Amino acid sequence: MSRILVVGAHGTVGSSLVTALRLRGQQVVRGTHRPASGPEEAHLDLVSGDGVAAALAGVDAAFVLSPPGHADQHALLGGFIDAAQAAGLGKLVLMSAMGADADPAAPLFRAEQQLQASGLAWNVIRPNWFMQNFNTFWLHGIREQGRILLPTGSARGSFIDARDIADVAAELLVSDRQVGRAFDLTGPEALDHDEVAVLLSRETGRDIRYTEITPEQMLAGLLAAGVPPDYAAFLNLILGYFKQGYAERITDAVTAITGQPPRRFADYARDFRQAWL
Question: 3-128+160-186+249-262: which CATH architecture?
Fold first, then answer.
């Protein structure tokens, strides 16, 4: 049994990863920016660096991702990688994003490069857009207006369920078979947002439709919701990449690593249907 630190343990991926690791018989330390609620939690702040060294003390492996709302992810992840080196961590799994390696200047790719040069045993996972965005970030328009409001045109995305990301991360953390490799993670199908709307409508019995908005409208909506300006601009930028077709590619990485096929969007819609009612 290993002792594994999960940074962002209360988040969309992290909470599922905690469950997946415990099902595999691992001891988990939940890393959180909240005050620690017991010996199985560790308070840490990637922005300030507070608590990072203490959270890494005595763990065998760790999973880390940059929290949402920060456009310069390398500024947060770089310090964690340095601390992991100093602690002599056995293995670090970093969650990046699909497409980050296309731009050498991208903050997430710079973090990937730092990890790969660190001397640590490592894996990088680059998931595509989460299915769970539809019950979190895009929820308000769906629930209040019955509309998916995005500037993505008719482009398709191979959306991935965060639970599949967690299963991949869990396997990489407990196994040495894939050390030193990066993986692009996708779902099993590429859907446009009209097709997503059909699946959500079918599951909920509601009339849910996709309405394309302009990037300017998207940016204004993000800012009105309190999203930091640099992160709002970053989201608008990568939504533009979606519209250009860069999110359509499908990989077999989930199946290759876990031995199980990734969940389809219909599975996700069934499991989360209450969110849109």
Answer: 3-Layer(aba) Sandwich (3.40)
